[in-house]
Amino acid sequence: MSVTPATARPNPDDLLVLLAVGRTGRYVSAADELGLNHTTISRRIAALEHALGGRVLMRGASGWELTELGREALAAAETVEAAVRSLASGAGGARVLEGVVRMSATDGFSAYLAAPAIARVQRDHPKVTVEIITATRRASLQRSSLDIEVVVGKPQVRRAEAIPLGDYTLALYASESYLATHDSPASVADLSRHPLVYFIDSMLQVDDLDLAPMLFAPTMRESISSTNVFVHVEATRAAAGIGLLPCFMADRHPDLVRVLPDEVAVRLTYWLVTRAETLRRPEVAAIVRALRTQVLADREALLGGHPDLREGNGSARFAWRAEGG
Q1: Which among 147, 198, 218, 223 has the fewest CB atoms less than 10 Å away?
Q2: Is 1 helix (H, G, I), strand (E, B) or coil?
Q3: Alpha-carbon distance 73 to 307, whole Å?
Q4: Sequence-distant (≥ 6) Cβ neighbours of residue 16 within 8 angstroms
């Protein structure tokens, strides 16, 4: 498409509409964020393109993507946004953050890492609202209305930033009551005599989590399986079998005993996915910084206290680190 000469000075409101679309890749999400309808978003983008004399967005495989002209306009839009935000500075000129940040993460990460990290941000910036969707899945190939995704295993994404947050360990646990009525496995071979509490195999989308039990216990029969890791923990505590659980969740319960600690430890990695444009939003950047700080602070608990995994040498018999982790 040929670029025609600009016919008017761009409207700052239209630039802010482009900013919302550029961050989410979707008109509908931008409309929700700005309190406008889809038709208005489309009309504002058309007006901006007319003023600038060229296309600012193009349809891509993962939604609307910025053209070169669109990236230039986005930089101007961020300047407009920063100027507007500066009017809301707090006492002493301190910047007050506000807005809605939407994220998805696994159940355990959301409860024990995201929640306290976000709470600290909100103490300083009470106008920041965070919506958390809990899910154990791959990173979305279609950039959705989510600002942040936390997934297990290195994601394959386009036009998005993939940031490693930190590692955690899965290990085998059984309740004291279960071990009181069943012989504790003395070796990996003994695991075949015990039921496994874990994810529903047919519904598990994450390759690293799917591979984990196959490394050491392919013959274990299923006991209670669920898409929710909190169910795994409680079913294991209820003596339903031996659970393959995140150490940072299981170690909170004194009635759970780690089984074969020197033989079985699976090391996985949490990754954070976000658009570069979204990461430039101050409230999103603040949440990302808080998440990284929380993961670092909880590193020992996440790794489950296993010396081989803390050092990363993987010398335990079935210690395994996911590819790319």
Answers
A1: 218
A2: coil
A3: 51
A4: 34, 77, 80, 81
Where in the chain are the domains? 12-86, 91-165+270-299, 167-269+302-321
Count Cα atoms within 13 angstroms, Cβ side, for 305.
9
Instruction: Decide if 163 contacts 271 (C-beta within 8 A).
Output: yes
Q: Report yes or no on whether pTM surpasses 0.85.
A: no
Structure tokens at 129: 């609202």
- Cβ distance 147 to 32 under 8 Å? no
Q: What whole-number distance in Å separates Cα of residue 271 and Cα of residue 69?
A: 31
Q: How far apart are CA 104 and CA 116, in angstroms?
A: 15
Residue range 91-165+270-299 in CATH 1.20.1050.10? no
Alpha helices in the chain (DSSP H): 12-24, 27-34, 38-52, 68-86, 107-109, 115-124, 176-181, 207-211, 229-237, 247-250, 276-279, 282-297, 299-303, 307-311
